[in-house]
Write a structure and sequence with these properties.
- The strands form two sheets. This protein has a five-stranded antiparallel beta sheet with strand order 7-6-5-4-8.
- It folds into two domains: 5-86, RimP-like superfamily, N-terminal (GMP Synthetase, Chain A, domain 3), CATH 3.30.300; 97-156, SH3 type barrels (Roll), CATH 2.30.30.
- It has three helices and eight strands; from the N terminus they run H-E-E-H-E-H-E-E-E-E-E.
- Helix 1 crosses helix 2.
- It is globular and about 55 Å long.
- A hairpin with a 2-residue loop joins strand 4 (107-116) and strand 5.
- By secondary structure, the chain is an alpha+beta fold.
- 20% of the residues are buried.
């Protein structure tokens, strides 16, 4: 039975992530996220980070190496894709429990999959993180505890 578009996208993302992680580990980077938007000439995005931040030359080096491997291993069906390698940015997504632990004390905006007590978004300080969820301090007297499976997306809030 042929794979659905969603299954194909997940397969491509998983294969690309494995390749990117090999390259990133060698170069001293962390792969934060891999996104595949396929249709025609698909868009493949790889977000990398390292202590002290990522420079343009860093992104170019990872891009060259990953692109060479992707082409050699024919990871993207048809071989037509546009590759972008970049930093996750100041308003980066928090994806893994370790991301939540790393950014404890930072301001975050959380969007839930479904409303909780009439609210679907929360903004506050990431107070603590565990393996199954985290807490966000909304005010000094109000903290909400959330499970990772309830969350659609969490992003850092840029404060200037």
């Amino acid at each position: 039975m042929p794979k659905s578009m969603s299954e194909l996208s997940q397969d491509i993302e998983a294969r690309v992530k494995a390749i990117a992680e090999r390259v990133a580990q060698y170069e001293g980077f962390e792969v934060v996220e891999v996104e595949w938007r396929g249709s025609g000439r698909g868009l493949l995005r790889i977000f990398v980070d390292k202590p002290g931040g990522v420079l343009l030359d860093d992104c170019a080096a990872v891009s060259r190496q990953v692109s060479t491997i992707l082409d050699a291993e024919d990871v993207v069906p048809g071989g037509a894709y546009q590759l972008e390698v970049s930093s996750p940015g100041l308003d980066r997504k928090l994806i893994r429990p370790i991301d939540y632990q790393r950014f404890a004390g930072s301001k975050v905006k959380v969007k839930l999959k479904a409303p909780m007590d009439g609210r679907q978004q929360f903004t506050g300080v990431l107070a603590e993180a565990a393996e199954d969820g985290f807490a966000v301090e909304l005010t000094p007297h109000e903290t909400v505890r959330l499970r990772f499976d309830e969350v659609q997306q969490t992003r850092l809030v840029v404060e200037i």
